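lol so apparently i was supposed to do this last week
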Amino acid sequence: MAFEGLSNRLQGVFDRLRGKGKLTEEDVSEALREVRLALLEADVNFKVVKEFIAKVKERAIGQDVMKSFTPGMVVIDIVNKELTELMGGTHTKLAKANKPPTVIMMVGLQGAGKTTSSGKLAKMLQKQNHRPLLVACDVYRPAAIKQLQVLGEQLKVPVFSMGDQVSPVEIAKNGLQHAKDNNNDYVIVDTAGRLHIDETLMEELQQVRAAVGPHETLLVVDAMTGQDAVNVAESFHKQLELTGVVLTKLDGDTRGGAALSVKAVTGCPIKFAAMGEKMDALEPFYPERMASRILGMGDMLTLIEKAQAGIDTDKAKEMERKMRNAEFTFEDFLEQMDQVKKLGPLDQLLDMLPGAGKMKGIKDVKVDDKQMGRVEAIVKAMTKEEKRKPEIINASRRKRIALGSGNSVQDVNRLIKQFDDMRKMMKQFSGMMNPKAMNKMKK
Ligand code: GDP
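anyway here it is w/ guanosine-5'-diphosphate bound
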């Protein structure tokens, strides 16, 4: 996971601070020295680190940390606030044109994730009931246009293209006109990148920019490239007056330096964070929530938003009723797995729970998507009747299911046993929830 090293180190420093009842000035200085090292090791720009520590120190002195009853907590709170400030303070919304369409130009080096992010952004806008149009201006990377068309088809978002023999400026202009003619309220222009910054690339991007007058010029940068990402951002910003950054590949084991330095160095806010290859792996970037995740305090707000967007409330209510009445079947079980999957990879969800990183066990549990796949295969190999009435699954049926799903009979046995236990527990639970039983307990 991104930030893991930084997160662990900072939490270690703070645990030691919390453990001490009284703090001396020396304790605080020592802690800040460690914070400084942790940030440097996470590849945060050294100037940024220097300023950061100076600000924390200044605040700590101003607040008379030593006199507080809980000095450790005060220091943590200060670091949390400063980390939030460092990443931009508050969330910066995507611009919206007074007169649609809003034009968003996506720029960045090749491989940073521009095309993928364009698709993700289109999906996000579509979910908010907008009518985005994707414009394919990357005429140099082989297959970039095709890639965008495939994404568009998958998302049911229209893609405007004129092949790769027309100049990007022409395509962008025509794309914008196409959006106006077809009532698209957002235009996302996917431009070409190079392996490194060069003048021809910049000139061409400037021309595209002049042709369509974007309301947003978003730079897509790969968080895995650390300080390089920040340098890239600086040069793009000088030439194109960026309005924001999309930070991709935060699902990888990036140390976090780019996320923590890019705003401070360029002044450009991070507007979105991408955490995976799938089309729904894009989140609006909230500095305070990211700081909270880094410090192991979780991010319940994002988790709740994901749940609200991903879970069908009617289905959830029906599921709850079934659980209460112990009518839960393997069919429901599959459906519930699907719902959970929609929220994103399990280990990313766990990271959003406060303190989950420190809970014994959870950290070492490798949330295994393969294991989930196996369970799913077993359930899918059951007949309709077996799913509804698991009690009829006898030895020969178990053998058949094992064979059909490519698992061992032991795997099948284990799952059925777990399912049985779960149903029993639900029954007990619903027994406890019934009013008569509650009254009995009160007496
Ligand atoms: P472009 O050249 O900038 O248009 O880059 P692409 O959109 O083609 O992305 C390059 C590669 O990075 C592709 O294999 C994407 O699937 C992958 N990618 C993009 N965003 C993410 C992300 O947030 N996480 C991960 N793990 N991979 C990503």
